[in-house]
């Protein structure tokens, strides 16, 4: 079945596959982190195709694992918000102190990405260690662990 895929360009800086689901051997769905949905069709009528369906408005407040993790010198943090609202993305050290606020303001609904360069709010490089990143809106808080290795 691997020979029936059609190549489709995904920009690696903005698109990555979040999930792949096959409903049967001829039909599948690919959901990307940027909200793009692709449909795979190998029905035998008209050949095999992968078509972009649409951008989907997300339905949940979600914070993904950063990548790479561990990281040096920078890492990407992806997050999803279901409606336009004010959000904050903060970096904490292992003592629970805020070392940097990467985002504090209004964002439209959708999938978003931000890069942290391993520096504090003053632009100073932080030491190797365990940090935490926290996404906050008016009703939710999600935290994840991040490791910086130098």
The biggest sheet amounts to: 4 strands, antiparallel
Report how far apart the termini are.
Answer: 43 Å
Elements, N to C (H/E): EEEEEEEEEEE
Count of beta strands: 11
CATH architecture of the largest domain: Sandwich
**What radius of gyration results from the CA coordinates?**
19 Å
In spatial order, strands of the major sheet run 1-2-3-4
Residue runs with pLDDT of under 50 for 5 or more positions? none
Q: CATH topology of the largest domain, anyone?
A: Immunoglobulin-like
Number of helices: 0
Could you estimate the helical fraction of the residues in percent? under 10%
Q: Number of domains in the coordinates?
A: 2
Estimated share of beta-strand residues = over 45%
- The mean pLDDT is 81
The assigned structural class equals mainly beta
CATH class of the largest domain: Mainly Beta
The coarse overall form would be globular
């Amino acid at each position: 079945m691997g020979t029936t895929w059609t190549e489709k360009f995904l920009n690696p800086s903005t698109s990555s596959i979040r999930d792949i689901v096959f409903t049967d051997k001829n039909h599948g769905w690919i959901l990307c982190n940027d909200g793009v949905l692709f449909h795979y069709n190998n029905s035998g009528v008209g050949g095999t195709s992968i078509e972009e369906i649409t951008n989907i408005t997300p339905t949940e407040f979600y914070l993904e694992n950063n990548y790479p993790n561990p990281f040096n010198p920078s890492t990407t943090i992806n997050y999803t918000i279901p409606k336009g609202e004010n959000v904050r993305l903060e970096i904490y050290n292992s003592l629970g102190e805020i070392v940097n606020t990467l985002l504090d303001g209004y964002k439209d609904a959708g999938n978003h990405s931000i890069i942290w360069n391993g520096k504090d709010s003053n632009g100073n490089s932080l030491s190797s260690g365990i940090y935490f990143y926290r996404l906050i809106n008016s009703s939710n808080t999600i935290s994840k662990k991040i490791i910086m290795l130098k």
